[in-house]
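Form 12-C: Joint structure prediction
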Amino acid sequence: MTELSSIEVTALIALGALAVVFGAAVFIVDSMARATFALLASFLAIAGALLVLDLVYLAVVTALMMTIEMAVMAVFMIMFMMNPAGLMPMSMVHNKRGSVLAGATVFAVLVTGIWMVDWPTRRGLVPEDPTRQLGEAIMGSHMLVMLVIGIALFGTILAGTVLATSRGRYDRFGPDLKAPRPDDPVRGGVGR
Amino acid sequence: MTGEVVLQIVLTVAAGLVGVGLYGALSQQSIVMIMMGLELVLNGVLLAGGAAWFLITPELPDAQMLVVVTLVVMAVEMAMGFAVTIAIYRSRQVDMVDMATELKG
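Section 2 - Result
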């Protein structure tokens, strides 16, 4: 495919607009569950837009990853928010005017840039299989990016485990790790 | 519609997502809602990356790599955000950013 047909252009813009509408709904609705699923709808609209742009693999990854991520997010929202079901509407915002101003300013600056820049003309055609293009880049010319991503994800696993551990070895054996017996709430071993 | 105008319209939509997400991240009090705002900003980057690939350089994989990196940043942000939320709640019973002011100057 070389160019977008008018139907595809319409679909692309409509999906993008839907993503913005659902994104705004996240901060408007009272119910936390609804806010989470509004965010999911926004992500799915972007996955649809990526599909229109021929990026099938990335669209599927986005849709699957975000569906699971939002399912986890819904659990956290219900755990940590005071008003999970939205039965008692309450305001949970601070510095609303400053935030609106910051968001609007950033949007205005970006839009000005987008419409002022002399964008380069399109180079080349869409390859027959964009996923193959990405795969070959990951395993070839762009392997360094993938290596950095791998290390970053490994670091995330380690940091997540450290943060999730409620009692580490320093809590059990003291700051110098020299306590003869671990300080545990319940003593372990035989004959306790 | 020419490709350039389509690109500009799609990038404007992406800028809209960034603006809404920034508002959310700055205005919300709940830590989880702040994470949702950041995710919306990254959602705009996803759209912009995909549009840049298709409408500017479809023969190069660079913009596709940008989308992959954005997806990884989203995953890392969520994992670390949830871990920090649980850690700070466990130690201080804090679930809103206004309550976490120990380091305020």
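Section 3 - Comments
Residues 83 and 128 of chain A are 50 Å apart (CA to CA). Chain A has a mean pLDDT of 89.
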